[in-house]
Each structure stands twice: as structure tokens, then as C-alpha cells.
Amino acid sequence: MMKFTLKSSWLAQRPYLIAALITLVLVLWMASGPSVAEQKSEIKAQIPSHDEQQIIAQVKVERRFGQHIHKTIDLYGRTEPDRITTLKAEVRGKIIQVLAKRGSTVSKGEIIAKIALNDLPAQLIRSQALLKQREVEYEGALKLNKQGYQGKVHLAQSYAALESVKAEIQRLELDIAHTVITAPFTGILNTRYVEVGDYVASGDDIAMIADLDPLIVRAHATEQQISQLSVGQVAKVSLLNGKQAQGELRYIASVGNDATNTFKIEVAIDNKNANLFAGLSSELTIDLVKMSAIKISPALLALDEQGNIGVKSVKDSIVHFTPIQIIKSENDGVWLMGLGEQADIIVLGQGFVRAGDKVEAIFDTPDVGADKSTDTQAASVALTTQN
Q1: Residue 235 has pLDDT above 50, yes or no
Q2: What's the CATH number for 85-210?
Q3: Domain with CATH 2.40.50.100 in the chain
Q4: Residue 5 burial (10 A CB sphere; 0-12, 13-18, 19+)
Q5: Does position 110 have pLDDT exceeding 60, yes or no?
Q6: What is the pLDDT of residues 123-144, one digit of tens each?
Q7: CATH number of this structure's domain 74-82+212-290, picked from the four choices 2.40.30.170, 3.30.2010.10, 2.30.42.10, 3.40.630.30
Q8: Residue 382 has pLDDT above 70, yes or no
Q9: Is the pTM of this model over 0.70?
Q10: In which residue ranges of the chain is CATH 2.40.30.170 found?
């Protein structure tokens, strides 16, 4: 016991030995474990990387192929007659006969109505008798002038009287001819303003005739559109009553309207059977150059951060945003230019990904003509992810 006490007293007097001993034990313990670098590597290996933590979204993709279609211009107009005229009375008198019915087809020269002759035949007979007298007088004055018994003044007066009677006869003959109202061209007697017994003065309306063959669709093109149009182009016409027709662009105005900055155009439609009417609202579709385009549903269109309209597609598992140009719209979709000959378009899930994102593309059977909704369908379908 005394011996242990002596050793403890000896160590208490020498504390540096205890410190050195503890240090030696710690060094030996640390040397027996793994190095710091190895520990860091082990810790790093146990923590998953950022790439491994990234969630890869799955999107539904359809491969669409380009087709060659015509770029078109759509205009709105109205059908109008090729020609329209209002017949007027050229002499005064009573309507004694009406031969053409309202709404009927009349041929060129066909009688519409007749005006009473009144005393025109009697005036003509009197003038014809007076003509013979003036002819005799002129012949006598001409002989006397040659013999030197009458001067040039008397001869001129006889000649003037003779020509005056001839002019009167021509006027009476025209008045008699004008009592018969005839159609100036073949068309539809759209309106008749007189009935038997009506009295008309010179200039009063008799009837209105419209030529509906060809039927004309008049529309107005903008400054950007007019440079792409030329006479002879084919135009498809859709009438408001559901009928379809095809015509030819026959006229383009060279001077624009100051108020609207538009140019009048005319499309002529064959209407021999008079099946189409004037005054109908219509839509013109004029084919321009042929180009390659891809048809998709409008629901697949998207906007980028700058507000550009485009389509999201997948290439090499990366989302790409492609700005596009709409060249034609139809009831079941729009035709786009800018996607090339083929594109893998995201049809489901495009609202959850952005350009540059890595995705897993799940291909569906291509269906060019089908309408595919994106964001509306994405609300009902859960996107799957993988670690």
C-alpha cells in the first residue's frame, strides 16, 4: 500500500508524463481508424448527387409529319349581280300592257311592258306628209337658184325646213319605239314598279333587271394581302346558307379605299341555273403558294417567356420550344410552318415542362387529323416520375 502511494506521489510530481501518455494513446487510436479523405469520400458516397435527386417527368409525344398544302387568304364579302339596271320610261303615257312577271327570267330584247301610243302615230303621219311638201319646195328652190331667179338665202331656208321635218319624223319614230320597254340583257326581273293603268312620265322607273350569271362576290383585301393576289387565281366560296362554289378572281382594284386602306376584288362564279342568289354573305378562300406544314390542335400551342407562340417538342430527351407561323386554320386544327418535315410534339404534359428540361418521352400512335388537348387532359392524368 505504501509502495502504490509512493508511485502516485511520484507521478503527481511529474504531470507532463501523464499528458504525454494521453497524447500517445490518442495518436495510436486515430492512426488505427480511416483517414479524413476516406471519411469524406464515404460520406459523399452516402449522399445522393443532384442529378440523382432530379425528377425526370414523363410526357406523351406524337410524331407528326409535314404535308404540302396551299397557303390561303380568307376574305369576307357579299354576292352581287354581275350587272344591274333600272329601266325608265322615255315617253309619257299610260301603261297598257305588262308582259313580264316579277322574279322571272327575261331574255335580251324581251318585252317588259307597253306604253300607250296616244297621238304619236297621227303626228308621224302629219310629219311624213309635210316631208313630201318640203321636198317639193326644196327641189323648186334648187331649180330657181340654178336659173338665177332665187338667191342662196331662199335655197338655204328650203333646205332647213326639209331637214327639220326629217328630224321630227325620226323623233316620233323613236318615241313610238320607246313605248315598248324591252330587256337590255338576259337576267332576272327582280322588281317591277308599274301595273296596267299606271301613268308614267319621262324618267319614271319601270322595272329593275339583274344579271346573275356570272354571280359576283365582292370583297376587300388588305395592303399585305393585295400583293399576293393576281387575276385568274381560283377562289373557293362558302355562302352563309351552306352552299359551296368555286370561282375565278377577275378584278383587282388598282386604287385603294382612302377610308379603310383596302382594295376591292371580284370573284366570278358560274351561275347558269340561277341556283345562287345575290346579297348573301360569303367567305372567300384563295389558294396561294404550296408549302410544307404540320397540322395540330390549337390546344397544343404554347407561349415562351417573350410571348412568342410556338410548340413544345422533344428531341434527344430534351424539351425544345419552336416558334411557328400559322398559315391556315380549319375546324379541326391549324396548319403550322416552322416545324420542318417532322416533329415529335408533346401532346400531354407540356404545361409541366419548359424548354431545356430533360424528360422521358412516351410515344403515341401518330394521328395527324385528331384533336389532342394538352393542359385540359393533363389535369386528369397524373404524371409519373422516377428517381
Answers
A1: yes
A2: 2.40.50.100
A3: 85-210
A4: exposed
A5: yes
A6: 999 999 999 998 988 888 888 8
A7: 2.40.30.170
A8: no
A9: no
A10: 74-82+212-290
CA distance linking residue 25 with residue 27, whole number of Å: 6
- The pLDDT tens digits of the residues spanning 179-231 come to 999 999 999 999 999 999 999 999 999 999 999 999 999 999 999 889 889 99
Mean pLDDT of 111-133: 93
Strands 83-88 and 234-239: unpaired
Q: Contact 243/276 with Cβ under 8 angstroms?
A: yes
The band of 10, judged by pLDDT with boundaries at 50, 70 and 90, is low
Q: What is the pLDDT of residues 148-179, one digit of tens each?
A: 777 788 888 888 999 999 999 999 999 999 99
Give the residue from 206, 210, 191 showing the smallest Cα distance to 97: 206
- CB 296, CB 333: distance < 8 Å: yes
With a cut of 70, say whether residue 103 has pLDDT above it: yes
Average pLDDT (287-293) is 80
21: cell is 501518455
What's the grid cell of residue 37? 479523405
CB atoms under 10 Å from CB of 300, counted, come to 24
**How many other CB atoms are found less than 10 A from the CB of residue 94?**
14
Give the chain's end-to-end CA distance (angstroms, integer). 70
- Up-side HSE of residue 181: CA atoms within 13 Å toward CB? 34
CATH architecture of 57-68+291-386: Beta Barrel (2.40)
> Which residues lie below 8 Å from residue 231, measured CB to CB, with a gap of 6+?
249, 250, 251, 252
Domain ranges in the chain with CATH number 2.40.420.20: 57-68+291-386
Half-sphere exposure of 328 (CA within 13 A, CB side): 22
Residue 282 has pLDDT above 60, yes or no: yes
